[in-house]
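Entry type: protein chain
Record version: 2
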Amino acid sequence: MKDLNQLKTIVLAFGLGILLNGCLPTRIPKSTSPSSSGSTEPTRDDNLALGNPSGASVSDPNNYLMVKPEYVLAYNQSRGIANWVSWHLSSAWKGDSRRTNDFRPDATLPSGWYAAKPSDYTNTGFDRGHLCPSDDRDAAPEENAATFLLTNIVPQAPKHNRETWKNLEDYERQLLPNGNEVYVIAGTWGAGGTGQNGYATTIANGRLTVPSTLWKIIVVLPTGSDDAARISSNTRIIAVNIPNNQSAADKPWRAYVTSVDDLESLTGYDFLSNVPADIQRIIEKRIDGGNS
């Protein structure tokens, strides 16, 4: 009887082990967070690691925080577009997925809010312009498709979008092969831009504001971990503010460089708030022409 009880115990333990192991994942996905050892392998880091510029929250309709795996944005219900979009970019985000061109309403907006649709831009003379670019999220089709949600899109003068803004987007990606990662914050300000059909302050029967300028901040870091803490007085930061009109393309994007301090004065936001204040004071007044 003793031997039989021992056998039952062994069988029970064996069966329990199978059950427990069967509940474990067959594959443990590779971590996309920085390692504690400070690895220099490219990773996917927090898209809002450097701070929430406007203090966006889910309780403010005109400064409404929307956190997506691919980027974070502050949406403005009264303007129908984003105030800003923030994202991290390293080679870990890059791949060879094709551009989806899947422009569509953002179904995650609160019930009862107007959600822009592709036809709102038809025959307006303005492009559906990305804040977080399609090419910054091409590791997988679903990640690329996320950039075509219309909460990430703003009415943009075609030449501004296809020439000056595009060249700036290309430049930020050209920084990656040199062992860098970048944090980017892009946004809108004001009302009134000039597209192919002339000047307009809104489209879609007043539902979508045409911004007067589009601005961007690019923070350049060598690949690593604990990024906000690694920003120093020598960290490179590129800030631009480009008028939303067709003639913006008459000049290269470098003609529109400014300082983070000036963008803070314009927008009222507090950029890089997770960076030590003494470092902010030094780097936010610097103007970088992007020549290196």
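Comment: The helical segments are 2-22, 141-146, 158-174, 227-230, 260-267, 277-283.
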